Amino acid sequence: MAESTISGDVGGGIQLTCILEEGAITVNDSAMNSSGTMERGYSLATPLPKGLPVTLYDSTEATYDATMGMPLVRTTANADTKGIGRIVSEPRWVKLPASTGVADTLTKRLAAQYYRVATIELAGGITSIFDVKLVTADAIAIVPGVKTSLTVDASLTAAAGKIVLTDVSGTGVGFIPFHYCAKAAGSTVTILVGVYDLFTVVT
Fold first, then answer.
1. pLDDT tier at 25 (50, 70, 90 boundaries)?
2. C-alpha torsion sign, points 76, 78, 84, 88
3. Span 80-98, mean pLDDT?
4. Lowest-pLDDT range, 4-18, 134-148, 151-165?
5. What is the end-to-end Cα distance of the chain in Å, rounded?
6. Of all helices (H) and strands (E), which one includes residue 189?
7. DSSP secondary-structure letter at 111?
8. Tell me, what DSSP letter sits at residue 156?
9. How far is 171 from 183, CA to CA, in rounded Å?
10. How far apart are CA 141 and CA 200, in angstroms?
């Protein structure tokens, strides 16, 4: 049976603007457009079009500050466990590099905002998204997409009058981190999290 052309895409879920990690950007100063005029052109190592599924990129560079508070996503691959949704808007550039060399690493692209962003329709049963204070207990590094690494710290939450999370090794439930935080003791950082279930609490 042939694939149907009848529309059945009703969408759903929370939508969130994310950074698309599309690899190195090649700048061509003498690209020809469709009318035959020469102009500057850009190509991406792994372009991500509207409609494509994406996964959270678990890079150590995907910190809240480096990504301006946005999650960093990339194309899906074999054995992925962090598939987060699909692209539902046309990707748009934040800034364009003047040459290939200034955007040939992720570090450079994030620092100068040489990347595209798009709206992602989220999967994973996420019902809420917010930025949260994380106070590390030196249990584990917080890696984007790892569901078992965060829990509510009851005493810190009571003192702050809002949710404060801490790291826990393998037993946390309820929160999906969208940003990276290195394993450390007593660090206080901000990360974005998605709520997907009833959450665990430590005292």
1. very high
2. positive
3. 96
4. 4-18
5. 58
6. strand 185-195
7. H
8. H
9. 16
10. 18
- Shortest CA distance to 53 belongs to which of 79, 78, 82, 84? 84
Tell me if 125 sits within 8 A of 196, measured CB to CB. yes
pLDDT digits (tens, 9 = 90+) for 29-58: 877 777 778 788 899 999 999 999 999 999
Residue among 118, 109, 112, 133 nearest 181 (CA): 133
Beta bridge partners of 108: none
- Residue bearing tokens 């052309």: 5
Q: Give me the amino acid identity at 161.
A: G
C-alpha to C-alpha distances, 78 to 47, 81, 82, nearest whole angstrom: 18, 9, 11
- Long-range contacts of range 96-99, CB-CB < 8 Å, 24 or more positions apart? 96/42, 97/25, 97/27, 97/42, 98/27, 99/27
Question: How many C-beta neighbours within 10 Å does residue 158 have?
Answer: 11
Q: Report which residue type is found at 92.
A: R
